[in-house]
Amino acid sequence: MNIALGIIVRVSIALVTGLLFAGIARKTLARLERRYGPPFWQEFFDIIKLFLKRERVSNVFGLSCIIFAIASLLAASMFIPVGNGMPFDSPACLITIYYLIMAAYLAILLGLSESNGLYSIFSNARAGIFIIGYGLVFITIIISITVRYNSSSLIAVASGQIGGFTHWNIVTMPVGFIASMIMLHGVLTRKPFGALIADEVSVTGFGSKTYAFVRFFYAINIYIHTALITVLFLGGGTGFLDFTLKQFLLFIVVVLLEPVFARYRIKRALGIFLFMAGALAFVQLILNLYIL
Amino acid sequence: MNLVFIAIALSLIFGAISIVFLNRVKYIRWILFLINSAFQGYVALRIIFSDSPLVDTFVLPFEAPAIGMPKLLLQSSQPGVFFFSISVFITLLIAIFALSSKRKDHCENIASSWMILMAGNAGIFFAGDWITFLLCWEIVSWSAYFIISAKNEEKTKAGINFFTISLISTSALIGAIFIGITGADSFLIADSIAYYLTLWDKGPVMAILTVSLFAVSFFAKAAVFPFHSWFIPAFKQSADEFSVFLCGVFNKYGIFALIVFVLPIFTKSYNGATFAEIPFPIFILCVLAVIGAIWNAISAFRENKIDGFIAHSSVSQIGVILCVMILGRNTGFVSALVYLLAHSIAFAGLTLTASGVKIATGEEKFSKLGGLSRRMPFTFVLFCIFALSIAAIPPTSGFLSQWLVLQNLFRNRFFITSLVVLFVSTISILYIFRAIYGIFLGDNKRFSSIRGDKFLRVISAVIPALILLAIGIAPGIIIRPLNETAQSLGYNTIISETFFVVVSGSVMDFGILAASVFGLTAFGIAFYLIGGRVSKSRAAVYSPQLRIHDKIFQPVEDVFSKILDLFSIDKFFNGIGFEFNRLSSALQRWFNSPQFGIIVLVLMIAGILIIGRVL
Amino acid sequence: MKNLLIDTTFKRVLNFLRTRSMWIYNGVFGCGCAEMMNALNNVYALERYGIKTVFDPAKADIMIAGGAISIKALPLLIDAYESMAEPRWVISAGACAINGGIFTANGCIISSIADFIPVDITIDGCPPSFDVIIEALFKLSQLIEKGEAVAYKRYILDNDWYKTNLSRVLEGDYE
Q1: Number of H helices and number of E strands within chain B?
Q2: What's domain C2-171's architecture?
């Protein structure tokens, strides 16, 4: 019973935090561009409105893929220790989290390919290319962390950073932190890397409820990646509020950098991902292996 | 009489009957094939569930000089039983699949050669002496050659390619066997392996020569870099049913032979150079396997046809299996066996469903397919399950394999290699997406009248899909039997209960993982339906989608193609062949010239005089 | 009949939530929509009320149909309307959409879109100016909250009448 309660709490936190962050991003971007934006709780209203509409079901496979993608991301978020709490007792293996995230991205790609948009292939191709770039950087970071802590468990990572600011990985692995911030930029669909799969063109033809699920996907995407980097580099947090504050700090840095850049072309963006973020992550791996 | 002997004899008899007598009623050949496969399945089950190992000796009724009456030995060993059961299971699935279509150009010719191949297949895994092993190895190679070049299309290059590399493989094998036979003075395999173990004390040259010959032979058979070039054309150009066999079973002969002949040489008596506690020669083999894995992953990613990406993907994962078997040291062996099982079943199923698509539509290129998810729903769902297993998506068995591989590599601190394995796995997601998108998603007017889901084809693919999901959710089912196999060869075991696995202190509960994914999916569906505000859809309208398959991943290809075009194995071998051609045509011209006779005469006289002078 | 269609109290609570996020699909059929982009851009910042433009009618709540709609374009208009998910509202903008406007005598221009899709609010003007459009949106949101913007239900109840009108037009039997 406790497990079920824990799962429900974690799912709710992921959804609410994600949607809140997305709304804050919209408002912040609007104010930075000198316009009024929607209020930061607007995402909730959008989702509720979409759920209150009567949808016509025309592609079942697209919908089931999107639901599977959300389920994978939520399952991955179960394995992240938020301030020493997890819904069930399991070692938070980074490999599992990585493969669940990749499963989610593959599923969302498949689901969005089922939309009826004429040019949706471009958006999906762009997304697929980003998934590769993101994956390569992330695996290098995973292995650097595993080398340092001699275990791929997030619990070991979190407990290895206890003891104050100087023990956090942001201080002891700064190169990896910069690589992961570039990766966070890309995976949260922020400029300069542009939309991961966020274009309106790729969700043409979906009904309202399916689109609401796609918005959920984005919210949980924000939640899980900020949570991962908080645990990996910012010490994990001693409680729920501490953890959420750190997630918010990471997210707001990414959002504040967005209006500065234009949206890069796919080749250039992939080049930056692979050869800047990837190179930095690889440098961190070599440092961890042989020097530290 | 031994069951294995009956199985071999029956296969040979059926093959002979179908070649000689069944020229007019070719359809019966596939029925004979089904009966043969079913019988071999029964044999496999009997052997698995019997307690005593089967040993059977034959004495041939003639005498050979210096040997006496040769004895043929068939004995069952744990790895042999494991590989035999996989091969028989996949052949049975293919037999069921093959009965589903009644096309005229169904290549009934291959069924007879295939039955002979199955005889050799059983012999390889149960051979106790070198004569049986070599005989069955050759039977398999020759029948495979006939099957690969049986299709009536313009290309037989695949057959010639396969034949050449088969010859290399057999020659190297014979060389290594001779070393064992002359050293141990007997034909039994066990005696030869005991002799190989003593080679390290006498100086490493003979041992390394043996290992190199074995490695060349078995890498050629298992299609590992640098001998992998036969596999891709053979896969593309042979009949659909045999493609399933190629990627499901044929790869594994080399791996079985590596496990039984090469790895035992390095267990106890090795006292030479090691690299991170792994014997150096084996480490080089592992490096080759890993290079092959990356190479083929990137090549799979550039393919535009159905069979291309399956072939490259299969070879790439064989490389990863070899890598974990060698670098995992003790617990890596069981992980490799689990991965092997999942690999065989997943690729067999994938090729079966892909063949179903090819037969139903007649198309192979992604740019011409599309929209089949609504016309062939069962095939679509099954293809997705197999494809997700190859891409290592939880909760399928592919994820179990990848998790085991990575935990073993982490435990032994091979971090760069684990980076490579993760890279291969990430690339696989892209080409799997391209395959599913290209074949099934979207909409296509050309296929609006296809009814592609035949019952037999679906049944032949449902069974492996269920097995894959079962292994992925409850890995203990398969790990506990495989622990015994590993123990019989002297390796460590992996602790595992039904739902969770422990590798060196890392615990993973696959049951909870599957439950959370499925549970949350059910929660999502419930959330969707909870408002109840869903109405019936309109009639499906054809909505065009721009499909530009060949170029959708162009930016990534540009990044990787620079690396791939720097060096190409095919160009290397082609270069050697070209130079050889030039030399031989120069010799020919010289031989045909009129001055040649005089020069030869002069050289002969000079040679005789010199030899007479020296002596 | 009208009383039966008005939303119940519970639905009015849901309607309150709906008015906080209204998505608009611009049905641009002619110059009657000239000022629609002005109304919906960032100067007037309707985004702070949750109003946003979407380009897919399946996600939209409101369709602003404006301009002179020809017989050729009429099936597109109806297709767009039917793609919208319920509850859905229509604002017909401009003189041409109400009664044909300056094209009344033209045989190719439809005289009133209210014969083909149910309309909640009509705006006059040639073209209607941006402040009128904005005022119409707020008026519509008030109607939605009160539960009186229920013309979409009429589309299902009187579907025969709408379909008859459509078939008459397409056969050329329309004035």
Answers
A1: 24, 8
A2: 3-Layer(aba) Sandwich (3.40)
